[in-house]
Design brief:
Chain lengths: 396, 408
């Protein structure tokens, strides 16, 4: 009898043990984690990139700065989500597409507002216009990278031939010499389609990663060897392998999983989203082209962006630009993962390019230019439809 | 022939020496280590082995444990750890001159530290001079950290990750103690080598005082030539308990090198208060410590490294059974609970004016069994809520720990 009692006690203890350990959050509650279908070898590279991205903190002895914005990649993208104003990037010095950045010799294009002890940080030079960029979520970047150029161009309507008031166009840029052109890339006058960054001025994730190491953390690499403090090319402070591991990590992060997608309010909200014209720029769906990473090849996904530049009106014109984008033009930001933004932004929203919108509704109401009609449509919605639309967006 | 003579001589000597070893000469000097006298005394309030009348005593403790921890569904599995092995050697050089050293091996041989190695000269009970590698008396845990004295497998987070326990430096100082009936008063004050810039430039990505312990040169030279002052006063009433207040402060940065000015002098200031008491009716032992850290971080640096920190812990230990158990005459079974909290970055974001988080709260219920006062076997459950600097939903870590710690 005693033995049975001890056995039952032990059984209860073991059961309660597992209950006393914190379980993993549901897959639709977090943005980080690898895409499904990676091989064991790819998992190993993903983990190396994960450590370099989220755990490697730079200090002066390992190359931090002397001028910098953040001390690690993860500082700007907590949980691979959107960033907080604490690490907002400030870019300055270029107010048109003709003259380029006139302040490159004064620290442009990016302000390094922090400095290691003993050094002075940068300030925006007199006369320079600037814009603030909230760090974006990293989620699903590999899928965006794998969208064929033709699919993006198919959505462009620079002269608004269809007369819907929306005239998206790509930001045609010159890729960095170290970038490898995608198969079947489409060029225009020797320029290629940029698809990353608020102004779509970045060609691929290698450029994005190497530039972020350099401009955000002050870390030079084989790819971006110029020290932001001296303006001189110096020895690499991060290895090529680490940069490439981080690129692989970013490429193979999963896409966000929509929550409660069969909920009636959410399906209704999705229809409101389409009816109000939001989906004209926030394109629901793409299919990736062939990718060397099989898990990314020929997959259909739902980023809610067309990756094109759109005139967003004077209220969102900071008189600063990059590439061929006009100051009031912004790349349509992907909306996937929007509902989880608060979990990486300290419990509240900081939306639009500079985080000025503190709610989804405020972000919608700040749409101008090509977004004016959709904004007006939103304002005319019933309260119930507005709520459904917001609920749908929060489910992404 | 000479060889044979030498061999015979050696055999004879061995025989003689063997004949002289008398086990009764190996005297254990037992101490009740479960309840300190005063934290100041902790360094000598340890069980030692003494050989006859030799003026040298040896001691030490070892602790090992098993743990299974899980953070948000991810675990490193079953871990067996030899956390530390510490050896003490003390000797009386003269009637009022004594020496004590403490050498610690942590995580196997991953870290080998001289934690304490100093000579004490007693001029008067109220005036002693101590020099060598001394334990900076900030808070109580740093002074009184031996594993067998605690009912918990982990050391307190605030004491080891906010304050840098165990923290010792080369330096000199004075200490003293005075009794009067139920009252005791003690003080300590030391000037030692101090901190360096790693406290705000480290891979923890936060102001982290323990980073200074990574500097292998700190026992050889001061980082900036400015001494660190550590002082403590404590008062004890046998019926109430002990209250200690301590301060540690000094310049941590290299403001000058080769006569050239590099920066202004930047200070670090730490205040701590500690308390321990035993509730007479229930015999509940309460032990706690709270500390405030202020570091002069350059304005142009990053808010990632906070200027202010605060945190502490409180332990409740309730003996539930005191009797002979499994053949151990004075065995004690305790139920215990530790609550701890650290805010590594107390302040507001310049960009938003909102609070900076970067804090951890932890609760650790425990059961400990002491077959003797010098040995503890403990079973802990730990649950941590850790928020990042932005205050995003906390990472939750929990798990079970089982281990022993014993003086030998």
């Amino acid at each position: 009898m005693k033995k049975i009692f001890v056995f039952i006690l032990l059984f209860i203890f073991l059961i309660s043990c597992s209950k006393l350990l914190p379980g993993a959050p549901d897959d639709d509650e977090i943005l980080d984690g690898p895409v499904e279908g990676l091989t064991a070898e790819q998992h190993a590279i993903f983990l190396k990139g994960d450590i370099a991205f989220n755990d490697e903190v730079f200090i002066p002895q390992t190359g931090l700065g002397p001028l910098f914005v953040a001390t690690s990649c993860g500082s700007c993208h907590a949980g691979d989500g959107k960033g907080h104003p604490f690490t907002t990037l400030t870019r300055f010095g270029q107010s048109d597409t003709v003259n380029g950045n006139l302040f490159l010799n004064l620290g442009g294009p990016q302000l390094q507002n922090r400095a290691i002890p003993g050094y002075l940080n940068e300030h925006i030079p007199l006369g320079a216009t600037f814009s603030k960029f909230t760090p974006p979520a990293n989620t699903g970047l590999g899928f965006i990278d794998a969208i064929p150029d033709a699919a993006i161009l198919a959505l462009a309507d620079p002269n608004d031939i269809n007369g819907d008031g929306i005239s998206g166009r790509p930001n045609w840029i010159i890729p960095k010499l170290y970038s490898t052109l995608r198969p079947n890339s489409i060029s225009q006058n020797g320029k290629y389609i940029g698809r990353f960054g608020k102004k779509a001025s970045t060609y691929d994730l290698l450029q994005q990663t190497a530039t972020a190491y350099n401009q955000d953390i002050g870390i030079t690499s084989f790819y971006e060897p110029t020290d932001t403090y001296t303006g001189q090319d110096i020895d690499p402070e991060v290895t090529n392998q680490t940069v490439l591991d981080v690129v692989f990590y970013l490429k193979t992060l999963k896409t966000p999983v929509q929550r409660n997608q069969n909920n009636a309010d959410i399906t209704g909200g999705k229809q409101v989203f389409i009816n109000t014209g939001c989906a004209k720029c926030h394109t629901l769906q793409f299919t990736s082209g062939p990718s060397p990473i099989a898990a990314l090849s020929n997959k259909t996904f739902f980023p809610y962006t067309d990756l094109l530049l759109h005139d967003m009106g004077s209220a969102l014109n900071d008189d600063y630009t990059e590439g061929t984008a006009l100051p009031q033009e912004w790349r349509t930001p992907p909306l996937w993962g929007l509902g989880l933004s608060k979990n990486s932004q300290g419990g509240q929203y900081f939306l639009l390019h500079d985080g000025r919108a503190k709610s989804i509704e405020e972000a919608i109401l700040l749409h101008g230019g090509e977004g004016t009609q959709s904004r007006n449509n939103f304002q005319q919605l019933t309260e119930s439809d507005k709520a459904k639309l917001i609920k749908f967006l929060e489910s992404l | 022939m000479k060889k044979y003579l030498l061999l015979l001589l050696l055999l004879e000597l061995t025989w003689t020496l063997n004949a002289q070893i008398d086990p009764t000469l190996l005297r254990r000097v037992p101490k009740d280590t479960s309840r300190p006298q005063m934290n100041l005394d902790a360094v000598y309030n340890r069980p030692f082995l003494q050989l006859g009348k030799l003026p040298v005593a040896l001691g030490g403790y070892a602790e090992a444990n098993y743990q299974y921890l899980q953070e948000d569904g991810v675990t490193d599995g079953h871990q067996f750890q030899m956390r530390r092995l510490t050896l003490f050697v003390s000797s009386s050089i003269a009637s009022r001159i004594k020496f004590l050293s403490e050498i610690e091996f942590e995580d196997g041989t991953k870290e080998i530290n001289i934690e304490f190695a100093s000579v004490d000269f007693e001029f008067n009970p109220l005036l002693n001079l101590r020099g060598g590698v001394v334990m900076n008396p900030i808070g109580a845990f740093n002074q009184n950290h031996d594993g067998p004295k605690w009912e918990f497998v982990d050391r307190p987070i605030s004491a080891t990750q906010m304050l840098p326990a165990t923290f010792s430096n080369v330096g000199f100082g004075i200490y003293g103690k005075k009794f009067s009936k139920d009252w005791a008063f003690a003080y300590e004050a030391y000037l030692t080598n101090g901190f360096d810039e790693s406290i705000i430039a480290n891979t923890e990505n936060k102001t982290f005082l323990p980073a200074v312990k990574e500097n292998p040169d700190r026992f050889e030279e001061s980082f900036n030539g400015s001494p660190l002052l550590t002082g403590k006063i404590a008062v004890r009433n046998n019926k109430i308990g002990e209250l200690g207040m301590s301060y540690m402060g000094g310049v941590y940065n290299k403001y000058k090198e080769d006569g050239l000015t590099l920066d202004k002098k930047r200070r670090l200031n730490v205040f701590a208060i500690d308390f321990n008491s035993t509730v007479p009716e229930s015999n509940t032992y309460i032990n706690g410590e709270w500390a405030w850290v202020h570091v002069d971080v350059p304005d142009t640096y990053t808010e990632q490294f906070g200027e202010k920190q605060q945190g502490g812990f409180v332990d409740f230990v309730q003996p539930v059974l005191k009797r002979s158990m499994l053949g151990f005459e004075d065995a004690v079974l305790n139920a215990a609970l530790r609550l701890e909290y650290v805010d590594w970055n107390k302040g507001k974001f310049q960009s938003t004016g909102s609070n900076i988080s970067d804090d951890v709260f932890s609760i650790v219920p425990a059961i400990s069994w002491r077959p003797t006062a010098q040995t503890v076997i403990r079973f802990n459950y730990r649950y941590n809520w850790q928020k990042d600097i932005l205050g995003n939903p906390p990472a939750k870590l929990a798990g079970f720990q089982f281990g022993f710690s014993t003086y030998f």
